[in-house]
Amino acid sequence: MKITIVAGARPNFIKIAPIIKAIEKKQSEGIDITYRLVHTGQHYDKNLSDTFFEELNIPHPNANLEVKSGTQAEQTGAIMVAFEKELQQHPCDLVLVVGDVNSTMACAIVAKKSHIKVTHVEAGIRSGDMSMPEEINRIVTDSITDYFFTTSTTASENLLKYGANPNDIHFVGNVMIDTLTQNLNRISAPVFWDEFGLTTGNYIVLTLHRPANVDEAQSLLTLLQGIDALAGEKKIIFPVHPRTKAILGDRSLALKNTLMVEPQGYLNFMFLVKNSFAVITDSGGISEETTVLGVPCFTMRNNTERPETQTIGTNTLVGTSIENLKKLFGDFLKDGPKPAGIPELWDGKASERIIEILLQK
Ligand code: UDP
Predict the structure, then answer these.
(1) Which Pfam families does the record match to this protein (predicted)?
(2) Could you list the active site residues?
(3) Looking at this predicted complex, what is its ipTM?
(4) Among 13-17, 33-37, 229-233, 296-300, whose mean pLDDT is lowest?
(5) What are the pLDDT digits (tens) for 168-210?
(6) What is the tally of structural domains in the chain?
(7) 232 band by pLDDT with thresholds 50, 70 and 90
(8) What's the burial of 263, exposed, middle or buried (CB within 10 Å: 0-12/13-18/19+)?
(9) From ligand 1's centre to the CA of 360, what distance in Å?
(10) CA angle 162, 163, 167 (to 5 degrees)
């Protein structure tokens, strides 16, 4: 079996790493399975791309489509044009896409139109919020996927509602958690740990990059100032995403507790998260990782496509207003963290299950 694996953005790299390891394990057992890794170039900053390849031992991509930034349509179109050529030059049995970025959708469309089977890892999750580009990418991708791999029974049920064939839906667990499990003993403190006087539990990790939170400069500032004031004695470590950095420009923010740092590599970032007092974020992936690490997480969004992080895990859905955050964070300080568990099959073995199932197709 010849698989082309597509990855374009930071969360994709984290998701493909254990899938590649699972394939290589099968190869070492003499099983006939090969892969070709295609990087679309959607994320190209060193600290959003190369660092993850190095730290997670992901092999150098066989091809880089180098599409870089652009509007939604420019980026999607550029990926489709380049990936069509890639598939013509390097035919395969199956294209595997992960997550919900533009590369996921663009490459799924090209593969399907080239009569190649499409596999979607992290299929079926839905926020119900069509203002998010990711939600459109999820719906389009799943509408043409042949083999669905899901992280939850809710995601599988969503696919059934959309009319997917039950035989093609496989609830296997979470590849993001495979990476976490495989690397937990490798995480390490960032260089600024001592310099900033960080100790376990004396800081909050903050990440914000979703358009709804960062694209309007004034509301972003209000949010950052509110979070800074909320922290009390705690410091706030804020790895600033390039999108957020571009909006902030060179404004002076006058924040007392907030320390802005570059986007962190995976091993430093997971160390920061694991040892933090709490996380405030608008990321989906981070709400999964905090769930498994048992770290309280406050999500600055009105909805989540990962409801199990809330019903089972440590995630609290805040909305986007600082007032709501103040109230919910205050409740947490008063009442302590809510009891939390780990969702079914988030056990670090999802990738092995995926490859096992694909080999039977
Ligand atoms: N991440 C990281 N360094 C950072 C911020 C995030 O390694 O400075 C990791 C994080 O642990 C998670 C992934 O990047 O695994 C999430 O990426 P992002 O928030 O960009 O995407 P989303 O999950 O919202 O799609």
Answers:
(1) Epimerase_2 (PF02350)
(2) 209
(3) 0.98
(4) 229-233
(5) 999 999 999 999 999 999 999 999 999 999 999 999 999 999 9
(6) 2
(7) confident
(8) buried
(9) 32
(10) 125
Q: Is 263 in the pocket of ligand 1 (CB under 6 A)?
A: yes
In this structure, is residue 118 part of a structural domain?
yes
Q: Which residues contact 329 (CB under 8 A, 6 or more apart)?
A: 230, 278, 298
Nearest CA to ligand 1 atom 24: 283
Residue in 52, 58, 269 to alter for ligand 1 test, most ligand atoms within 8 A of Cβ: 269
Q: Is residue 319 part of a domain?
A: yes
**In CATH, what number is assigned to the domain containing residue 132?**
3.40.50.2000
231 shares its domain with 115: no
Residues 306 and 225 occupy one common structural domain: yes
Identify whether the C-beta of residue 312 lies closer than 8 Å to the C-beta of residue 294.
no
What is the DSSP secondary-structure string of 82-126? HHHHHHHHS--SEEEEETTSHHHHHHHHHHHHTT-EEEEETTT--
Q: Residues 144, 26: one domain?
A: yes
Q: Report the chain's C-alpha Rg in angstroms.
A: 20
Residues 111 and 132 both lie in one domain: yes
- Helices of type H across the chain: 10-28, 50-55, 72-89, 102-113, 133-143, 153-161, 175-183, 192-195, 211-214, 217-230, 242-248, 266-274, 284-293, 308-311, 322-335, 350-359
Residue 75 lies in a domain: yes
Q: Are residues 331 and 353 in the same domain?
A: no
Q: Among 5, 18, 146, which residue's Cα sits nearest to residue 83?
A: 5
Q: List the domain range (segments joined by +) for residue 257.
A: 203-335
- CB 121, CB 98: distance < 8 Å: yes
- Residue type, position 173, single letter: G
Is residue 251 scored above 90 in pLDDT?
A: no
As beta bridge partners, residue 71 has: none
Tell me: do 294 and 164 sit in the same domain.
no
